[in-house]
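Q: Could you write out the predicted structure for this multi-component system? I'm mainly interested in how the pieces pack against one another.
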Amino acid sequence: MTPSLVNTLLMLPALLLLAIVFAWPLLDSAWLSTQASSVLTGLSPIANHGANWQRLLGDTRFWQDAAVTLRFALVSVGLELLLGLAMALLLHRPGRGRGWLRALTLLPWALPTTVLALGWRWIYNDPYGPLNAILRAFGAAPYGFLTTPASTWLFTVLADVWKTTPFVALLLLAGLQSIPAELEESLVLEGASPGQILRRLTLPLLKPWISLALLFRLAQALGVFDLVQVLTRVGPAGSTESLALYAYLNAMRFLDFGYSATLVIATFLLLVVLTVLGWLLLRRRALEPSR
Amino acid sequence: MRGLLLLWSLAPLAWQLYTSLVTPEALVSGSAGATGSFWTLENYRQVWLADPPIWRYLLNSAVVGAASTALTLALAVPCAYGLQRQGGRLRWAVSLALLATAIFPTVLLFLALLQLARTLGLANNLLALSLPYAALCLPLAVLLLRAAFAELPPDLEDAARLEGLNLPQRLRHVLLPLLAPSLASTAILVFLFSWNEYPIALTWISRPELLTLPPAIARLAGSSLFTVPYGAFAAATVLGSLPLLLLVLIFQRSIVSGLTQGAIKG
């Protein structure tokens, strides 16, 4: 056997499982999106010649959910990158107990989202939650954090930022560790201020890691499900209904598998377009000048 | 600054702990009520004796976590080794596929995987859950382990080959012992993932006594939308977080270095 054949055989079991769990579901959902498969058809698929896709285009709930999801992803990922960078710089600084600090800041990311979402529901509770207790201590009236569409959306973003910023920070920390300390020292000798070092040295060298974190978080945020499903459900006036949640509700609540598959594929296409677009923009802007 | 960071990260968790340990009257009024007690273990007693009890979910999650970790490592080690040795187009294509699957949001797979589980009779089977879980963890595991294989001196394996060791022997006696730290951090990350995974567990498992922790907690939340027993919830969240808390604190070094090293060299 040639080495190349041995290598291929070694990779084969893992690649097969990946194909079954990633590629097959996408193909299957793409096919199912061209079928009527709901309670009306006795849950067996019948070709309906693009009727699902036609319905999707005229479905205002779909368009609203797409806007909610997109806004959620862009705002929360943007905040996570900013906060994650600050956090990474802080975790990178030498000092006593740095290992413990890193482990403790990582906790929100490591614990189950559903568990933490339930925790946040209690924190936002009106009138007994701790946030309202703080408001009361300052003499303010209790506030319904999860009652109006705008504030529900905002505080869902906050919970997501709290949960996932540690992951972004960890990736950026990896980037910071790859920057040779001598480079920073030489800039310090030249009399550069911390702000100048950050702009001229750290950020340019960190760009590949920022891009990686951005791509990863953007893809995950566009599929947001766990958090909203437990924290707010669809939210007041559908303000926190993500595309993934709508697809889930169609399958498990309305038993319309054909339309659920259509939503899954539509979300997937949105995801591909956005990540490829983001990737191209980052490549042009960030990677070429540094070569 | 560090204090602020700790406050931001830990205050919401500390609040859960506090909520789980006080009586409902104390929670609402901030002082001991008519019964005269402030602290209580009643919330823990309640979730521990519930039907099904919380330890059942913890046990289920531990079983799924262990099975997923074993399966992932068994598939990822040979794949990472082959990928590291392989050159040319195949290596490029596999690496790209791994990267694409690594960032893929898994919730988009739930519908087709649910049908697969029904067709193959895998629903309501804890060990079967480790199949999708292993697949979802494989991209990251292979990328981390490939980076670790790349770190080993190439002469080492050649020397072992000259000694007459075949591939499984070389892996078992020479290469894997040297990869122990990377294997450990990969295993921990896989375990974390399976402990936390929600959409697939939610759709594959319907029998209450087989639920893993995340859908069990979510079911608690959904069962009583208006009269919410937050004390009992908090006790459940504390107990559900405790195993991971210990894992992260004990293995903090290998988690952080595993992720950062993998990201640097991957």
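A: Regarding packing and overall arrangement: Residues 52-228+237-265 of chain B form a domain with the MetI-like fold fold (CATH 1.10.3720.10).
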